Amino acid sequence: MDRLRPEVGDENADLWLKPIEAIALDGGVLTLKVPNKFFSEGIKERYQKRLVATFRDLSGVEIGLDFRVEKDLTRMLPSSDPVPEASPQSDFALSDLNPRYTFENFVIGESNRLARATAESIAKSPGTQYNPYVIYGGVGLGKTHLMHAIGNAMRRQHPKARVLYTTSEQFVNEYISAVQNNGLDAFRAKYRSLDCLLIDDIQFLIAKERSEQEFFHTFNSLFDSRKQIIVSSDRSPKEMTPLEQRLISRLEWGFIADIKPPDLETRIAILRKKGELEQFSVPDDVILFVASSVKTNVRSLEGSLIRLKAFQSMTGAPLSVDEARDILKDTIVYDDSNPVRAETILRIVAQKYSVDVKDLKGHQRTASITLPRQVAMYLSCVMTELSSTDIGRAFGGKDHSTVLHARKKIEKKVEEDPFFLELMNKLQSDIKAAER
After folding, report:
1. Strand pairing report for 21-26 and 29-34
2. CA distance 40 to 228
3. CA 71, 112, 251, 85: dihedral to nearest 10 degrees?
4. Residue 330: which residues within 8 A CB-CB, separation 6 or more?
5. CA-CA distance, 429 to 301, in Å (whole number)?
6. pTM of the prediction?
7. Fewest C-beta in 10 Å: which of 13, 169, 354, 356?
8. Helix H or strand E segment including 33
């Protein structure tokens, strides 16, 4: 530290080198304990050659480096510098955070549990363990809600924090305006002095050469200062095709969470929560009808409830399922096919693998039974509206964790083996045909 500090400066020495701890020297390799993989990547990129040269000068021998991640980040990392008082009329105080989007009214389900838990942890301790944080998923699944919830929670817990929510489109437009009006210094000062940057729909910024490059440098500046970066996208970083490939590497340094379409139970909970917020009492059978009809988009789910509320406020009459069907006929597509039953899946899979249904429901763990049982559980997850608990019951009282394990295992096999994917497609076709 004494040797390197004059070369790298006090700020960089305290930020990058002070948290490192040397824990072992074995076979000419020095193991360094670091707060997280971001540190190891950053040190390799910035300081590894200097460190190796310094160790060689001090010891007279060539020493290699290895890194071990220390999971207790809050203990390892020094606290952030005090946040200066923000002007009440600053851009940060007036940024577009929606006060209606909070953790309290975000409905948790299996499809978003990890993303939500990570977001809450970030709000409590920004810039430490999950930085950057990437949320990805389809349209209307709650990514923007989570981002606003983080920003609102940070504002409550850290009143002086400079938190800015923006979209990639706003970022690009603001950058273009800054270039045209000689305002780049002010633009950079605004974005690089933040404590937390939340940028929505990052995929629209990708491949816009100069804007993407500007964001890359903004990212580096914030990350080096241990400020929190949160982005959302409709796809994972590895599926993006940026001009600046280093940007994807930076995004993959952090924590990546996906949000999937909600299951039936979560959709029901979302409708009930929305009804409470709108002070709108909805009969349970109507809630079940809407939740069963709108399956992929939380935004459409909530929009359907608002339409029903508007209708009831005009008529004053209680809602029925038939009325709800008529009111929403132009906005939702109904699936007229017969619902798929777990018993049909068990029967078709048993026939395909030449085993008995009772064996699929039993506890035998031979390979000839385990694989078809996992296939049947996977197909039950993707083809029925049953919860993992209900599927477990249909398979002879298995635990829901067994069902989730089976689903993950078969999903991985489907991704890796095109012939197995073809088999799954054929089984689904046979199951649907059997239900007609």
Report:
1. antiparallel
2. 18
3. -80
4. none
5. 28
6. 0.55
7. 354
8. strand 29-34
